[in-house]
Amino acid sequence: MWREVVELARVKNIALAAITVPLGAHLGLEGQWDSNSLGLVALQTASVGCFIVAGNIFNDVSDCAIDKVAKPDKPIPSGRISITQAKHLAIEFSLLSLVLMGIGAYLSSDPIAIIAIWSIASILMYTYDMGLQTKKMGFAGNIAISLMVGAVMLYGAATIGKVNTPLAFYAAGVAFFANLGREIIKDCEDMESDKDRNTLPMRVGLAKARMFGYVSLLCALIVLYLPHWLGPLEFDQLLFQAPAMLALITTNGPLQKGEDHAAQQRVRVGMLLGLLGFAAAVSM
Q: Residues 150-159: pLDDT tens digits?
């Protein structure tokens, strides 16, 4: 059973959350950590981790019919875990995330911001696979997922009462645009199996969708540059962003060749490098 839970959880996604929440807090604290901040961030990182696990499981429940054909070895379509069991797990992880968030909010100096961000993200997650099912709307679903990714950075800053930190908003903007580009590219990659979704590639074609994805990455690059131009970061600290900028700009190569998987993986790396670049800059 635990093996199936680990597969459904998608450990890589949890690892990314384990990095981004502390990163958001690091930007808010400008690198000045204390023991109280460490405890608050640990609580909310665990909350976000459980939140992501719940979202991934709901997603697999929603995709069960598709996965029976495209990915029959996954836990649900293979029969190793039932849909009912998966739904119960998703609800349990959702409740655990809520409890951890509540404890952290109670101990925080800005509980309203924490509760508000978590609540908005919950609505976006629920309506992605259930209710409105924005996932089937294609581009609207791409935006919903990307808003959640960007919100994690603000959530990290809110955890230690620093949600108004300008750099946290810049980082959230980079995460939003980079992930939006990645989601569009992933839809290009999955176009053959996405029969029940009205994705952007289906509406405008692969070439135009890839172009839209790349434009979104260019927007991420602009937001990456802004805090070095407008402040609070120094212009020479832009050097910390060189690896991220290189990774995002060179995504155009594999996109032109139709290598969508390679492109979206490069975007993931570029986004992470960009966020780490901000963290390195405030630590100087």
A: 999 999 999 9
Distances (CA, A) of 280 to 26, 71, 239, 283: 10, 39, 10, 5
Amino acid at 44: Q
Q: Tell me the C-alpha distance between 235 and 115, whole Å.
A: 35
Single pTM value for the model: 0.91
Helix-helix angle 35-62:83-107, to 10 degrees: 160
Please, what are the domains in the chain?
1-163 (1.10.357.140), 165-284 (1.20.120)
| Tens-place pLDDT, residues 136-171 | 888 999 999 999 999 999 999 999 999 999 999 999
Quick one: pLDDT at residue 154? 95
What pLDDT shows up at residue 190? 85
Show the tokens assigned to 184.
């569009």
- Whether the bond between 232 and the residue before it is cis, its omega within 30 degrees of 0, is yes
Exposed, middle or buried by CB within 10 Å (0-12, 13-18, 19+), for 2? exposed
Closest CA to 9 of 73, 62, 55: 55
Among residues 35, 17, 3, the alpha carbon closest in space to that of 179 is found at 17
CB 154 within 8 A of CB 130: no
Size of the chain, expressed as the number of residues it contains:
284
d(Cα 248, Cα 244) in Å, to the nearest integer? 6
The predicted-structure confidence for 244-253, as pLDDT tens digits, reads as follows 999 999 999 9
CA distance linking residue 127 with residue 117, whole number of Å = 16
pLDDT at 264 over 80: yes
Amino acid, single-letter form, for residue 231:
G
Integer Cα distance of 160 and 37 in angstroms: 6
Contacts of 270 (CB under 8 A, 6+ apart): 178, 217, 244, 245, 247, 248, 251
What percentage of the chain reaches a pLDDT higher than 90? 68
